[in-house]
Amino acid sequence: MKQPQPGKQPVAELTDVTRTYKMGDEFVKALDTFTFTFNSGEYWAIMGSSGSGKSTLLNLLGCIDRPTSGSYRIRGREVSSMDDDTLSTFRGKELGFIFQSYNLLPQLDVLENILMPVMYQDEYPDGIEERALRLAERVGLGGRLHHKPMQLSGGQQQRVAIARSLINDPALLLADEATGNLDSKTADEILELFDELHDEGTTILLVTHEQDVGERAENILRLKDGLIESVHRGQRGRSGATQAFEASHSSVAPHAGDAEAEVVTFTSSEPGRSDADGGGEA
Ligand SMILES: Nc1ncnc2c1ncn2[C@@H]1O[C@H](COP(=O)(O)OP(=O)(O)OP(=O)(O)O)[C@@H](O)[C@H]1O
Questions:
Q1: Domain ABC transporter: where (predicted)?
Q2: What is the pLDDT along the chain (282 residues), one digit of tens a residue?
Q3: 31 C-alpha vs ligand 1 centroid, how far in Å?
Q4: Nearest CA to ligand 1 atom 7
Q5: What are the backbone dihedrals phi and psi of residue 130, each rounded to the nearest 5 degrees, phi first?
Q6: Domain with 66 in it
Q7: Residue 25 lies in a domain
Q8: I need a surface site. Which of 43, 82, 135, 152 has the fewest CB within 10 A?
């Protein structure tokens, strides 16, 4: 399991990223010259109303899609120009995914589902089965190793998906409405698991439209019309206490390690502006 890093490092750096979709003769800028850095060990909720660009951003972060223009680097490696095969291998090693609908393979048991990301490799990495066992224990499923997904509750299936997402010790954990299919008690248990993973140093980016889920994260990045609307940084979550202050959009963006919670709001009167320092070097 990961240990907390002594210093934060840039993990996902997006610079002037634009994603444009073509709809007939029209072009839709789903993400507009977006510049942001997510650092190691950070836990971000990505929020915003429908159509604000959350899925577009998550697809880019997850290397499922490519920017129309701009640069995206993961742990310093430019991914936007990788060929498809290199990108696919890189994605499998560096990124973990958690989906609203779990996306487990029904014919595989818990342990096999956790091992799924490495199953298609020529040979198993050393110690990977032991790691899968440890992860199953870690998410509370040590007693269910040979259950099939349909023999598990929704919360247990999501725990399998979380263990699966961690099998390759990814740089980044990307969660898309991870608690959307769960009742509030089970959702809370999954969010507690995220809290624990965050405490252990995992970098988590979670897309949600649920305010209470977003507020469990350490920080909130809010999008509007493909631009950054606000950056809310600070110790939130379990304490629930946020000593926020509003800063004008022209303020110097916040830096990692600042003790107090901060909000930086970007006004829509500044068209095209979609940049903020996610905490590290800009
Ligand atoms: N494949 C596509 N083709 C054309 N336009 C698209 C496509 N995907 C997204 N868009 C447009 O890009 C914008 C951002 O969409 P996106 O799905 O990223 O928003 P979202 O914040 O995830 O919304 P929701 O919360 O409803 O899922 C929207 O205006 C949407 O209509």
A1: 12-250
A2: 555 456 789 999 999 999 999 989 999 999 999 999 999 999 999 999 999 999 999 999 999 999 999 999 999 999 988 999 999 989 988 999 999 999 999 999 999 999 999 887 777 888 999 999 999 999 999 999 999 999 999 999 999 999 999 999 999 999 999 999 999 999 999 999 999 999 999 999 999 999 999 999 999 999 999 999 999 998 555 444 343 333 323 222 333 334 455 667 665 444 334 455 444 333
A3: 9
A4: 21
A5: -65, -40
A6: 10-265
A7: yes
A8: 82
> Are the CB atoms for 64 and 19 separated by under 8 Å?
no
Q: Atom 26, ligand 1: which residue's CA is nearest?
A: 50
What's 179's domain CATH number? 3.40.50.300
Tokens 């023999």 sit at which residue?
A: 151
* pTM of the shown model: 0.85
- The domain tally of the chain equals 1
Q: Token pair for residue 75?
A: 């742990």
Residue 58 φ then ψ, to 5°: -65, -40
222 in contact with ligand 1, CB cutoff 6 A: no
Query: Hey, what amino acid is at 253?
Result: A
Burial of 180 (0-12, 13-18, 19+ CB in 10 A): middle
- Count of residues for the chain? 282
